[in-house]
Amino acid sequence: MKILVHMGTRKTGTTSLQASLHNASAALRDRGVFYPKFGHQTVAHHLLMGLCVDPSRLPKLFCRAMGGPDAAVEKARVAWDMVCRDVQRRRPEVLVLSSEALFLSTNAAEKAKLVGRLSELSDDIVPILYVRHPVPDFRSNLQENLKNSSRSFWPHGHRLKSAVLETEAAFRRPLQLVAFDQKVLHGGDTIADFATRFLSTWVKAKELPALRSNAGLSAEALVLMARLRAEGGNTDEVAFRVRSLTSYLRKLDIDDPPVQSLTLLPEVAEATLRSATSHRWLVETGQLEIPGLDISKIDGAPPPGWMRSAPPESLFQHDPERLDRLKRSVEALQRRAIPHNQPTQQSGPTIPQRTQPRMRDSLLRFLRRKLASFQNRKTGIAQARAETARPSSQGDRNEET
Question: What is the pTM of this model?
């Protein structure tokens, strides 16, 4: 059995590829391709970090989603045990694993530990990495970072080389490197390209669903999120609540589209390119050709001090008038979420609460009705009396709200 380990990098169509493989997993199994499901709504295999990364080093957002570091480790063990059992039972020809967290978020020892676990199933393990031009790579990662945090963020192009070398040492074979660029990608996107390059023996590219995930937010939406976090004290709880505005802000971007996509300031783009020594190394050593990359402009100069200390939302252009429109819209949303004469006690932005009955409450009402019906049949009490004794559905709704 061959194991394909897709390791990113971030913002190279990773989530779209993972969602496509996840949605097509049943059909892929019939072709001999196994893409494990680690959870109903989990399309990626980030849980693999729990197999190889010390709990104290696991990313904070990941641990929060998993219920804490210890829970993450236990869930990782359970998920991997299920994968091993499925492999032994079904005997697939290829196992596909995908998590961009495995590349930059693990060190050399952790990568080697991961390979040790994978080797329990096969010695034919192929690491795969898509690499983007350093300037759009920084722009896209900055955009993604600002959805979650207002902490300083600067180019990590210099880390790419060390991570490549660590990965190749751990897997004991060269990385399969692909430039993330429409001029290079088969079909113009990661899904078709991955299928064509690595799965053509088992599946045609057109048979994988074409999906687009993690659509970016406008510059104004990102600035607004940063300001809302600052107003709430930049706590983790406030950051979590602000992030829940993402879908609403994305809708505003559609209804009131920005004049241009997020654009780095010229001096930021220049500094990002100059520091991209790993990209220059990949090109100079003949490992990868990146369309549009002029390596003569990469001189190894580190990001300037002002770029390291500046608020991340100040590194790109934005429209103050459109920012004000988005702010007014979010404030109106918050007012609708707070009942009159009931001021909120929490700091930071208010997020609308769920107004529809939850499944748990609907199930409880269903069980109460069944129990009342059973008791009526057993005791002979009239249905009318049972209905009088049981709280009305309107009463249930009032309790929920």
Answer: 0.81
